[in-house]
Amino acid sequence: MKLLLCWRIVVSDLRAFVEHKCPNGVRFQRLGDIATLVRGNGLSKKQLIGSDVGAIHYGQIYTKYSRFTTTTISRVDRDIADKLVVVNPGDVIVACTSENMEDVCTPLAWLGEEPIVTGGHTVTIRHRLDPKYLVYWLGSQAFQRQKRAIAGGVKVIDVAARKLATVMVPVPPLEVQSEIVKVLDRFTQLEAELEARKAQFSWYGHMIFPEEGECEWLSISDVAKRVSSGGTPSARNPDFYDGGTIPWLRTNEVRFQDIHDTAVYITESAVKKFLGKVDTRKLRDCCYLWRIGRQICGECDFSDNKSTLLQY
Known about the structure:
By secondary structure, the protein is of the alpha+beta class. The chain folds into two domains: about 25-185, DNA methylase specificity domains (Adenine-n6-DNA-methyltransferase TaqI, Chain A, domain 2); about 225-310, Adenine-n6-DNA-methyltransferase TaqI, Chain A, domain 2. Helix content is about 35%, strand content about 25%. Strands 2-11-7-9-4 form a five-stranded mixed beta sheet. A hairpin with a 5-residue loop joins strand 18 and strand 19 (about 295-300). Helix 1 (about 1-20) runs antiparallel to helix 8. The longest helix is centred in the middle third of the chain and has 35 residues, at about 175-210. The radius of gyration is 28 Å and the shape is elongated. The relative contact order is 0.11. The methyltransferase is composed of M and S polypeptides. Pfam families: Methylase_S.
């Protein structure tokens, strides 16, 4: 929650900065008016065994690189490089052919110090923008909507350079582009850290909770005092809610954490009509499971709605 709040503050500050620098709004321009788009040609995987010039094959954009790179994993001989499209530092390469709509036009910014080359099924964008800003924008939902309108093909999806040149790009001042990049870089780093934490948690979970056969395994009913379901008093009946004093736990309050109170309270009549079968008014020290697998530990007396309750 604190992390989400901090992120909202950052985004709010960025929005204020953009409004200050662009009081009349951000100008949109055709990509073809602010950049030169060059369709690639040639370059097979068999040619990626040279040693002279760095090269990026369109398939590698999908499988070997992220959004930006300063090095290439492949090189080609000089005589082959002379026949290919040159990619200068700061240029953005777009893989314009894919088997699915989601991946087509995946971008890669070349941030190395020397020119490299690329081949067929790519479009090299030589532009006047911050290269990382352009890559982030090409990954945005705003671009994805425009892309669907210009892409062609059924089994193989392709976007022609002349059609890619027609998309409208927001072009704030370079100072604003740079600030946007800083914020998105921080968010990307945070994403990577969260993924690393998930992997670490998964590893520790495997170590702590052994596979079946390494220890005694029991069903939930063997370790729980009771497994039961709740009920939902009708929201149309005020007698079930007005003046209620019994905490009522709803599924949207189940967030993988301990719970000490609930947002809604119900009356005794609601408990008797909908929850009387299992006497859910005293559910301290229990594990509450929602249908999709979320759980919390209850540390107060409450009633629950239509989910699974484990008391132990």
